[in-house]
Design goal:
heterodimer; A: alpha/beta; Transcription Regulator spoIIAA; B: alpha+beta; Heat Shock Protein 90; five-stranded antiparallel β-sheet; 5 strands; 26% helix
């Protein structure tokens, strides 16, 4: 359900399929285990392969934001589909974490969807 | 011949166990029933999300300490592309509906609930009404009017040249980006 890749201190968690209350519980366990196993300063949640998300996904991101804050790290959201970006905007999540695109190399990543940039 | 509004009427109802596996089932059922109206991809996504939120509320809150709960979902396709969705449980009920509907309010923070269920339902549908009585359960009604996809036939005028094909209007909704 979650595919991880680690590069230096950046952990990318690629989420797959539908995120609801049922699947979020499992994703949460998998991500938390991976974060605690290795020293991570940036956790990127890759949403590009997520086909559905309700507010459980918001809870999932907020929970990981809390965990990373405790560990002195940061959370970023990568490539959410348009409709999922809408749910995130609705919740103000885009103000909590930056949205990045990981199609490009990480160093060149720009903030693509912060609240200030909204047209 | 008279064209009755009821021509488009359709209804279905399904009852299922209040277990989290059925969240995906409920929104899949809703989506496939509504697909008869040929909704936009974005409208379908909004309805699926709203249904998912409502059903999750029943499972996480209404039947929190009550085993073997059941949820009933009723969907009606009304005239003028109106969709009526009623989701009912016989769980614990909500003592303060107004407070429950406030964004970020949640009674289950340990489950990592964001407290946004009602806010999402409200913004993805046109109308949301919640009736609840403590100890008896909650009935939630959502209504949404889908965007017009076919041109209306002019009543009585001689539109002989309008073939079935040309009545088809191009998609008018905002396309999903990306």
């Amino acid at each position: 359900m979650v595919v991880f890749s680690l590069k230096k201190h950046t952990l990318t968690a690629a989420l797959n399929g539908e995120i609801d209350h049922h699947s979020a519980m499992q994703m949460r366990t998998e991500i938390d285990r991976a974060v605690r196993e290795t020293p991570v300063s940036l956790l990127i949640l890759d949403f590009s392969r997520v086909t559905f998300m309700d507010s459980s996904g918001i809870g999932l991101v907020m929970g990981r934001y809390k965990l990373m804050s405790e560990l002195g790290g940061e959370v970023a959201i990568a490539d959410p589909p348009a409709y999922i970006a809408k749910v995130m905007r609705l919740s103000g999540l885009d103000r909590l974490c930056r949205t990045v695109s990981i199609a490009k190399p990480l160093d060149l990543t720009e903030v693509t969807n912060n609240a200030e940039n909204k047209a | 011949m008279p064209k009755t509004k009821l021509k488009y009427f359709n209804e279905m109802s399904v009852t299922f166990s209040a277990v989290s596996e059925n969240e995906a089932f409920a929104r899949a059922v809703a989506a496939s029933f509504i697909s008869e109206l040929d909704p936009l991809v974005s409208e379908l996504a909004e309805i699926k999300t709203a249904v998912s939120e409502a059903v999750t509320n029943c499972i996480v809150h209404a039947y929190r300490n009550i085993p073997n709960g059941s949820i009933t979902m009723l969907i009606r396709l009304l005239p003028d592309r109106r969709v009526y969705i009623k989701i009912r449980d016989k769980g614990c009920g909500i003592s303060n509906v107004a407070q429950a509907m406030e964004p970020l309010f949640t009674t289950a923070p340990e489950e990592e609930r964001a407290g946004l269920g009602f806010a999402v339902m409200k913004s993805f549908t046109d109308r949301l009404t919640v009736k609840s009585s403590v100890g008896k359960g909650t009935a939630l009604v959502m209504e949404k009017t889908l965007q017009e996809r076919l041109e209306r036939e002019d009543n009585g005028s001689s539109e002989a040249n309008s073939s079935a094909k040309s009545r088809r209007k191009p998609r008018s909704g905002t396309p999903m980006r990306q």
